[in-house]
Design brief:
Blueprint lengths: L1 H6 L4 E4 L10 H13 L4 E5 L1 H7 L7 E4 L15 H9 L1
Helix pairs in contact: 2-3
Catalytic activity: an N-acyl-D-glucosamine 6-phosphate = an N-acyl-D-mannosamine 6-phosphate
Enzyme class: isomerase
Keywords: Carbohydrate metabolism, Isomerase
C-alpha cells in the first residue's frame, strides 16, 4: 500500500528511448530518470533489465519495470514471459 500512496495523484514518467537510438544506453536512461525525479515525477517506468539495473540505485521513487518483446505467436508485447518477470524482480 505504501507504493500506491507514493504514486497517488503523481506523475509516472516513462523513460524509454527509441531502440538503437543514440540515447539507448543504460547510463542515459538512468540520467533521464534522475531528471524526471528531480522535476517531480512520483514514479518511473523503465524498459529493459540493464536500464532498470542502471536506474534503481540512483532514485528513491517506485519503478515499474517492463520488458518489451515482439513475438510472432503472442499479441502480448510487455513482459511476455515468466522469465522476463523473474529477471525484472532480480534487477
Amino acid at each position: 500500500m505504501k507504493v500506491l500512496q507514493q504514486l497517488k495523484s503523481g506523475l509516472v514518467a516513462s523513460c524509454q528511448p527509441v531502440d538503437d537510438s543514440p540515447m539507448d544506453r543504460p547510463e542515459i536512461v538512468a540520467a533521464m530518470a534522475q531528471a524526471a525525479v528531480a522535476g517531480g515525477a512520483a514514479g518511473l517506468r523503465i524498459e529493459g533489465i540493464e536500464n532498470l539495473r542502471a536506474t534503481r540505485p540512483l532514485v528513491r521513487v517506485p519503478i515499474i519495470g517492463i520488458v518489451k518483446r515482439d513475438l510472432s505467436d503472442s499479441p502480448v508485447r510487455i513482459t511476455v514471459t515468466v522469465e522476463d518477470a523473474r529477471a525484472l524482480i532480480a534487477a
